[in-house]
Amino acid sequence: ENIFSINSARGDLWISKSFDRELQSNYSLLICAFDGFYQICSSIYVNILDENDNMCKFNSSSITLTINENLPSNINLIQVQAYDSDYEQNGTLLYKLSPKTPYLNIDSTTGTIQTTINSFDYELIQTYSTLIIACDNINSLPSLCCYLKIYINIIDINDNFPYLIYPSST
């Protein structure tokens, strides 16, 4: 399939279709001119710049975790990873939680989710959900984002002392 065409009389070079950097990042052309007696050739190298034309993707639309209540802070729960087939800054992803939560932190470059000092207490909350957003091309527009819903089931542990309930006098 010919992407490049040349007008043999004038030497004009043009392309016959759009480039896709994800399929091929560069081209090497050898163009020769012949006047019937002499021939001269020149090499042309074409590097294709990336366009932010691919949205990132997670492997699934949601994940479910089950954790114990009252975990200490800075415990790694999971590392999420999205994929983007674009090149360099167009394919570099940053992660964030939406909405921000007092229970979890996410490392914006690695996608590692950790507990915070305000860990989950089963007596207050038994299930929790939040959204992880991964966005590419963060230094310029357009930025394309993908989403992962995370559901967390909290397991009750024996963390409360027993107490007596005295019968009321009658």
UniProtKB/TrEMBL annotation:
SUPFAM superfamilies, alphabetized: Cadherin-like
InterPro entries, A to Z: Cadherin-domain_protein (IPR050971), Cadherin-like_dom (IPR002126), Cadherin-like_sf (IPR015919), Cadherin_CS (IPR020894)
GO cellular component: cell-cell junction; plasma membrane
PROSITE patterns in the record: CADHERIN_1 (PS00232), CADHERIN_2 (PS50268)
Membrane topology of this protein: Single-pass type I membrane protein
Gene Ontology molecular function: calcium ion binding
Keywords from the named record: Calcium, Cell adhesion, Cell membrane, Glycoprotein, Membrane, Metal-binding, Repeat, Signal, Transmembrane, Transmembrane helix
Biological processes, Gene Ontology terms: homophilic cell adhesion via plasma membrane adhesion molecules
SMART domains: CA
Cellular location(s): Cell membrane
Domain Cadherin: 1-58, 59-164
Protein name (Swiss-Prot/TrEMBL): Cadherin domain-containing protein
Source organism of this protein record: Rotaria socialis
